[in-house]
Design goal:
The protein is α+β, with helices and mostly antiparallel strands and 158 residues long. The chain has three helices and ten strands; from the N terminus they run E-E-E-E-E-E-E-E-E-E-H-H-H.
């Protein structure tokens, strides 16, 4: 995925639902605005630094063709952003689970985290950790908000 600098402060997420051919859904996040374009597509707007997660599923008469779970963070003006399909102009990619097995594992982690935490408040570094662990077929470490807050403070000092 390509990285590009943008000056806009809003990330616009486009989700599609076309019966058995496309089924996208927002997993978590607090959009500042939601607009229904048609019966098949919805747009969610996120202000800078907001985190959100979504599922993008595509299929045909034979079943699932692509399935991905994405957690992203909307960028600030002037930052380099990753161009992600369905997000304009782009966002910081924190977790990308592609394929049936990895998508299911990512959804299980998200379900488990949602029991004890507010998902859009989890540290971006933890989502990157989950991405790396899932991509290597390993179990992610449990989320400790205090440890990731300390990590953020340490990065701010240096």
């Amino acid at each position: 995925m390509e990285r590009t600098t943008y000056s806009r402060t809003i990330s616009l997420l486009s989700l599609t639902h076309i019966g058995r051919h496309a089924n996208d859904r927002l997993l978590f996040g607090r959009p500042v605005n939601t607009a229904k374009q048609s019966s098949k597509s919805t747009f969610h707007s996120f202000e800078h630094t907001q985190m959100f997660g979504f599922v993008r599923w595509r299929g045909d008469e034979y079943g699932t063709q692509t399935w991905r779970v994405i957690v992203a963070q909307s960028g600030c003006p002037g930052e380099l952003l990753t161009r992600i399909p369905g997000i304009q102009p782009g966002a910081h990619l924190l977790l990308h689970a592609f394929g049936k097995a990895r998508a299911k594992r990512a959804l299980r982690v998200i379900d488990h985290l949602s029991e004890a935490h507010v998902l859009h408040e989890i540290a971006p570094a933890y989502w990157r950790h989950v991405h790396l662990r899932i991509s290597r077929n390993l179990v992610p470490e449990p989320y400790d908000p205090d440890a990731f807050a300390a990590l953020a403070r340490a990065k701010a000092v240096t």
